[in-house]
Amino acid sequence: xxxxxxxxxxxxxxxxxxxxxxxxxxxxxxxxxxxxxxxxxxxxxxxxxxxxxxxxxxxxxxxxxxxxxxxxxxxxxxxxxxxxxxxxxxxxxxxxxxxxxxxxxxxxxxxxxxxxxxxxxxxxxxxxxxxxxxxxxxxxxxxxxxxxxxxxxxxxxxxxxxxxxxxxxxxxxxxxxxxxxxxxxxxxxxxxxxxxxxxxxxxxxxxxxxxxxxxxxxxxxxxxxxxxxxxxxxxxxxxxxxxxxxxxxxxxxxxxxxxxxxxxxxxxxxxxxxxxxxxxxxxxxxxxxxxxxxxxxxxxxxxxxxxxxxxxxxxxxxxxxxxxxxxxxxxxxxxxxxxxxxxxxxxxxxxxxxxxxxxxxxxxxxxxxxxxxxxxxxxxxxxxxxxxxxxxxxxxxxxxxxxxxxxxxxxxxxxxxxxxxxxxxxxxxxxxxxxxxxxxxxxxxxxxxxxxxxxxxxxxxxxxxxxxxxxxxxxxxxxxxxxxxxxxxxxxxxxxxxxxxxxxxxxxxxxxxxxxxxxxxxxxxxxxxxxxxxxxxxxxxxxxxxxxxxxxxxxxxxxxxxxxxxxxxxxxxxxxxxxxxxxxxxxxxxxxxxxxxxxxxx
Length: 602
Known about the structure:
With 602 residues, the chain is α/β, with parallel strands linked by helices. It has helices at 2-17, 26-29, 38-51, 82-87, 105-119, 121-124, 140-144, 181-193, 225-245, 275-280, 297-317, 319-332, 410-418, 499-505, 531-544, 546-558, 560-563, 566-575, and strands at residues 55-62, 68-74, 91-96, 130-135, 197-203, 213-217, 250-252, 265-266, 285-291, 338-345, 351-364, 371-388, 391-398, 402-405, 423-425, 430-444, 455-469, 474-477, 590-592. It folds into 3 domains: 35-332, Aminopeptidase (3-Layer(aba) Sandwich); 398-518 and 587-592, no CATH class; 531-575, no CATH class. The chain has 18 helices and 19 strands. α15 (531-544) crosses α16 (546-558). It starts with a helix and ends in a 10-residue tail after the last strand.
């Protein structure tokens, strides 16, 4: 009842009190205590759409809850066609809100920002070189699941959405596997608009400290060198400087190295399952905003608003240089002949940064009687802490000329297509020499993670095989020049359009389709043997093959358990014989390392 009354009052306020003036948000009406519901948020943007020719709201695709994913576009010259916008050399900036609707600061801050960019001339000028696209609420499902208890550590607002969506998925872990309709609709938006910059708004969990605003950019080495240099050398320092000038104290996102910030903080490594990590695969510079959960809601919204406004100011100051870096990235492409699949934190390297925190102390728990941690906010301390933001290369792979994906793996093919991967099909059955992977070993989580028993620490063995592919199987050319599927032997000077394919098709990559269980069927052996029958076959094999017999004897000598295991020895012979199925653990995606002419459909 209370929510219904609030919606009525909100719409009454907009419709009657401000028919030609400045619409105000539920956040403002409540004096910073209330976050807009989904219906209020969409109604507000509809009002802006009706008031300003420079704002247009689109319905872009379904979500798991059955409502469309909305996109609000702010374009100063009233051009709402992404291709036309790009031809004008304008930069597209995507602002994503409510991926975790219990963290609603960006929802309300973006409502304020969109209005102010229209109303205030000094802000409206920021739209000269850029077009802003806003997803008002990404996780609509979670936003509709409104409550006031699920964020027990958070200081306001009065009520808010829930982290999981209608399938109880964390959508900030869904950008590779795309289990949700939300993610598929998001990626359709992303691939259509191709933003160059991204802001993803959140609220943090974790330690207590002085800062209201923390944030992190996508891990810099996930970007190509020109954009990497721009992010580290110019954009990030200038962004921080401009925030400091406004008295907005800020620091990198606080992920403790051990248990408290005094031990140091760790730079967040955003793999492609996350929004900013996904964007980096497409040369989009992403920032994740994390306001602090214990600060009052109105202060968090204000900090998010000021961050976004400062972000827009900085990109406008350096707009020409940013565009030059993008152009250089496209023209120069990648460096070297290897793609980095994964990294590990280097705990021996760190920077020292100032940190304004509270004294971490311990006292007896009133629950258990044991010592418990608390932060004494009466004792602020400014201290130097270690910032661990260096990652060493863990695994890498050489760029192939082609990947070949059998058409049977249509779920993988559909996701590759969704993300703009250019593919052609074989027009006839073809025998091809490929690099094949056998899955050597892997670990699997003990409990489901985001709906999957996800694999990790995957290792492969490589072999060269001649494989029969069928008419209609898919060939992915790791692209030349400006990404054209040339089909000739031109040198590969630009591979960045294929980063998504490489990051998902290489099984050792942390967010590969293999690790997300798309290929689990290959891990199950389909044919077996009866011991009493195979005993005679195995004996004949060992009698006629001295090398096989010697290898078995060596294995038995190395492994006492095998020496005392009759079935184990029989199974060893089976696995090393021609009778063992060669497709068990054989990864079905083939790699062609050198240029060959293939019969491809036009």
